[in-house]
Amino acid sequence: MNLARHHADPNTNLLFVNFNQDYTSLAVGTRTGYRLFTLTTVDKLEQIYENESEDICIVERLFSSSLVAVVSLSAPRKLKVCHFKKGTEICNYSYSNTILAVKLNRRRLIVALEESLYIHNIRDMKVLHTIRDTPPNPMGLCALSINNDNCYLAYPGSNQIGEVQIFDTVNLQAVTMIPAHDSPLAALAFDPTGTKLATASEKGTVIRVFSIPDGKKIFEFRRGVKRCVSISSLAFSTDSLFLCASSNTETVHIFKLEVPKEKPTEEPQSWMGYLGKALMTPASYLPSQVTEVFNQGRAFAIVKLPFSSLKTVCALANISKPRVLVAAADGYLYIYNLDPTDGGDCTLLKQHRLDGQIEAGEGLSSEAPGAEGGAAQPAPATGGFAGGATFAAVTARNEQQLSSSPHRSPARGSPSRKGFDTTGGEDLLGAAAEDVHDPSVAAGLNTLRLDDDNEFPPVTHHADTS
What is the pTM of this model? Predict the structure, then answer.
């Protein structure tokens, strides 16, 4: 969530807030530097690093490693890749225009400019491919799958209608174009497996989910019908069963991705039965646009925020139990409980201040009325997910799948590096990616094994002297 181009709350100095790829960490950029937090308990937001320097408008962390990518307001065209634990800048790249977004996974680093996308090999930061002359994308909207085997990039294919371009960042080729919406795109998100893509348009009333790479629509949810809103973020749960959407309203919607079971049909025995059957099948006499409204899914659960008209970014994480996390432009992280079985209204458990400012008599965190007990919640959830699996169990499985994926040689051709400056030649890029900060992360979370050479081989960074 980049606030540099928005009117943030005057009581906070936030410029950027975002979760890492598996929602176990939070990165915060401010006018005086940036902070990194771990998300291991509800009751405490643990700060693991603070950098006091310049105004940071983008800061992205690679999972739970020490590798971070940062961009400042004072140098908006320069990307710095840093080892935050050692306080070392590994390399930097300068681009022809303002950097609007940066996306990371274990194989690729994507830099989004308004009319181009740069695909880097994260192992040595070489530019593998450049997607030029994209439709104007002033918000830098794009999404990168975190899955090694389905390493896809999604970005707008038009600034007039909601077309989504899918690009394979491993084989460096276009895959498909999805006509997702009639209005321009506002939000994109891949699920952890890289096989589902959620989309929302600027109209904001309908959220669609497509299968990847074939682009087939598999789910459609209606956020509302009374008003058009600005969807600011979409996020899947780690088991890909839930999808949350936040907007500029006070409501965060959580949808459940399940196919409704078909009930056996019974032939009516009377004329009243035939009439009732006709009334229950609107597709037989209503316009197709109205029929779609009847067939769209509704929210499984909702979060009621204590404000509206603020930019937010949401996540579905497992912190002992399933939680809805909402970081807002007011400088707070809100943590809600999610009932994965019954849904309904989510209960506010805790709110934490993100910008380091301490309110009188409160400290950095405050407990919500009616929240679960003051102690951390160590007991894992035991039900409510597909096949009896919890967020944590699915997270562990996904992590195992990701770590077992071999690194294929991705480069094809010789991408041009003209116009880029790279400084420093130390072999720190691999070290930063391999170094997992705080290995004693609580059980059940995504503890990454980036020190395993099979998962993230050591690299040597080569400076560009041309």
Answer: 0.76
Question: How many CB atoms neighbour CB 87 within 10 A?
Answer: 9
User: CA angle 458-460-465, nearest 5°?
Assistant: 160
Residues of the chain with pLDDT under 50: 283-295, 360-363, 373-427, 438-466
For position 53, what pLDDT does the model report?
A: 87
259, 262, 390, 394 from 385: Cα distances, Å: 14, 20, 6, 9
The whole-number pLDDT of residue 12 equals 72
State the pLDDT at residue 367.
Answer: 64
Note every long-range contact of 115-118, with CB atoms under 8 Å and residues 24 or more positions apart, other chains counting.
Answer: 117/142, 117/153, 117/155
Within 8 A by CB and 6+ apart from 114, the residues are 97, 98, 100, 136, 137, 138, 140
Angle ∠(32,38,42) on CA atoms, nearest 5: 115
pLDDT of residue 317: 96
Output the 3-class SS for 232-280.
EEEEECCCCCEEEEEECCCEEEEEECCCCCCCCCCCCCCHHHHHHHHHC
Q: How many CA within 13 A on the CB side of residue 127?
A: 21
Total residue length of the chain:
466
* Residue 298 pLDDT: 86
Cα separation values, 422 from 107, 397, 418, Å = 19, 38, 11
CA distances from 226 to 171, 223, 233, 306 (A): 44, 10, 20, 21
pLDDT at 270 (0 to 100): 65
